Amino acid sequence: MNDLWASTTGNAQATVKLETADDGFLFRLTNTNDTKLLQNQLGNVVQIHKLLKNGVSFSTKELRQLATAQQDLMAEYDRQQKVVVQDALKVAATYSVVLQRAFDAVATLDVLVGLAHQAAYSPHGYCRPTLIDGDDCAGHGIQLQGARHPCVEVQESVSDYIPNDVDLTHDRSNVLLVTGPNMGGKSTYIRAVGAIVLLAQIGAFVPCQSATIHIRHHILARVGAGDWQDQGISTFLAEMLESAAILRTATARSLIIVDELGRGTSTFDGYGLARAIAEYMVRNVGNLCVFATHFHELTSLADVFTNVRNCHVTAQRDVQGLTFLYQIQPGPCLESFGIQVAELAGVPAVVVQDAQRKARELE
After folding, report:
1. d(C-alpha 270, C-alpha 274), whole Å
2. Computed from CA positions of residues 9, 11, 12, 18, in that sequence, does the dihedral angle turn out positive or negative?
3. What distance in Å separates the CA atoms of residue 166 and residue 130, rounded to the nearest whole number?
4. Which residue spans traverse the membrane (predicted)?
5. Is the N or the C terminus of the chain less surrounded, counting Cβ atoms within 10 Å?
6. Mapping DSSP to helix (H, G, I), strand (E, B) and coil, where does residue 154 land?
7. What are phi and psi for residue 15, nearest 5 degrees?
8. Which residues contact 275 (CB under 8 A, 6 or more apart)?
9. Which of 214, 215, 202, 280 is nearest to 246 (CA)?
10. pLDDT tens digits, one per residue of 2-48
11. Which residues contact 26 (CB under 8 A, 6 or more apart)?
């Protein structure tokens, strides 16, 4: 085409560009003034398609035939490519069972190696738990010495984790009521119990000095606070739905973990529900339970039932403020130190002082 255009114009330097288009290829002359010459001299050879500022686009019969042939080849290429992919997938599918078994083996190995690595290299030490089975629960339960939360203790912000003992024994201490200040470690303590029992019952070592566990059929938890907006369920309703499911499921061989039940409603309603649920577990189910609460009135359950025990996390007040000791001690704690925690969080002093005044009035 360059030779033909050069002979037509008499300019050996004249060139024609070849460009791709939606339906194939087009020639383009960059000077739109060449349109009339193109039509007059080569009108029987070329077909003009577009006349734009950047030139005139045209094609020839041979170019259109080549474009059609190229499109046919590409279509055949795509068809053959799909055949190759389908054949490869058919062959790969024959290995799916083998691959799935390999994936399962690698996943299991990954979990076991992870558990073993953590147990072997923990600076605080893991122990092999002693597991006891049998439907006779009397005198058995969960006894942990120096228990730690396996996830909290490895956090970078935790430099010196304070371990604690746990004694949940049928007919002696079915329920541990845990009271104490906000941020004092109640939630970490009760969740550590669940994590340790779970680790023990899947065959792993546990973050304790020693652990004796009567095998649990369920680990049932009511912890955290959150609504289910997509289902129109409020925080308190979600709390009650979970509590109802726990009470329907629980047996004497269940471990139930409860964290501040009843906080999503009024104080009186929340306390009434928390006490009723705790009493139902003691009277009708006989399961083991760690129950963290800010309802100090709930600690009187230990005066009614001989198998309910009170314990609390400790804190000290000094001139620098509030110091959390994270140590579990026997007996109830009748202070939540909520105002002191608000002060630590940077609540304005005038608000803290007003809160202290109102708290004294209520007392």
Report:
1. 6
2. negative
3. 15
4. none
5. C
6. helix
7. -130, 155
8. 295, 297, 298, 301
9. 280
10. 778 777 777 777 788 888 887 788 888 888 777 788 787 787 888 88
11. 18, 19, 20, 49, 50, 57, 58, 59, 63
